[in-house]
Amino acid sequence: MKALVTGSSGFIGAAVTRCLLKRGIEVRVMVRSDSDLRNLDGLNVEKVFGDLRDPESLRQALTGCRQLYHVAAHYALWAKDPQIFYDINVTGTRALLEAARDIGIERIVYTSTIGAIGLPPGGGPGDERTPVSLQQMVGHYKRSKFLAEQEVLDFARAGLPVVIVNPSAPVGHRDVKPTPTGQVIVDFMKRRMPAYIETGMNLVDVDDVAMGHALAMEKGRIGERYILGNQNLRLYEVFSILSGLTGVPAPKLKLPRVAILPLAYANQWMSDYVTHRPPRIPLEGVKMAKYVMHYDCSKAIRELGLPQTPVPVALEKAVRWFKDNRYA
């Protein structure tokens, strides 16, 4: 059994790759020529070069495989040219699934995002059935992933054997970039957070997310979505856990979101027109802070057997890895 994993050099993709190898699956990884391959060091995988914007490279990467884990995406809160989100996340996903259909891939797991899941207007956790629309998506990343998920659902309705997983906010080791959630941990460890904006999130161990992918391949129902998450927390609760793990005092000053928005807009303008580098205060992150992103993960636990490593354990893994690798 050979499986192709896209996005294998990233945080979730590397965890999926390692999980599959432990389960005895032969893994081929598709990477770009300029990818940071540190997360694949020492792994017994077959590497092929490809790009989601190059349809012919996708067909070559898929040939000879029976399964596909499509984890790759352009994941960021800012880009100099926002079109890259749509070229990779939407058009690239469509091209990959067309190639998988034509080649006859037996089964596919598509990695979406928790951001494509709706939140009840009156509060409370969202689940796979909570209605949501494109107009509710904040920022180009979420909009592109929402549109990509609609493409995937269309392929499933047309008979492609694809299952969708929606990871929440994974934490753990090998967050090399790091992800926006990982950057919060690094900034906390470096005492760069004298104040905060209250919000809510669902955290999960990245290794549990990887196992969720493997279980979705084995047990997931075609055309269904599964939230891969664990514990709903407020940001101050996350800081409290991190403080206990690191000895760094948690910030006590809670700022209203409206006080930060002007600074975020100014940072965005500087990034777009002056520095051409990601802003220190991401505008989309500040906008998303108004939503308490809490979710009900019971479907994946019930139908897939999604593991639930305690979130403090997952955060301890992240802290230790960032410290050992001199991020903080």
Can you characterise this structure?
With 328 residues, this protein is an alpha/beta fold. The protein has a domain of 199 residues: Rossmann fold, CATH 3.40.50. Helix content is 43%, strand content 16%. It has a 7-stranded parallel sheet with strand order 3-2-1-4-5-6-10, with helices on both faces. Strands 7-9-11 form a 3-stranded mixed sheet. It is globular, with a radius of gyration of 19 Å. The chain starts with a strand and ends with a helix. The mean pLDDT is 90.
Please name the defining characteristics of this protein.
11 helices; three-stranded mixed sheet; seven-stranded parallel sheet; Rossmann fold; single chain
Question: What's the arrangement of strands in the largest beta sheet?
Answer: 3-2-1-4-5-6-10
List unreliable stretches of 5+ residues.
none
Percent helix: 40-55%
Q: What is the architecture of the domain at 2-173 and 203-229 at the second tier of CATH?
A: 3-Layer(aba) Sandwich
| Strand count | 12
What is the approximate shape? globular
Structural Rg: 19 Å
Specify the number of helices.
11
CATH class of the domain at 2-173 and 203-229: Alpha Beta
Order of helices and strands: EHEEHEHEHEEHEEHEEHEHHHH
Content-based structural category: alpha/beta
Which homologous superfamily in CATH is the superfamily of the domain at 2-173 and 203-229?
A: NAD(P)-binding Rossmann-like Domain
Strand content: 15-25%
| Average of per-residue pLDDT values | 90
Question: Terminal Cα separation, in Å?
Answer: 40 Å
In CATH, the topology of the domain at 2-173 and 203-229 is named: Rossmann fold
Most strands sheet: 7 strands, parallel
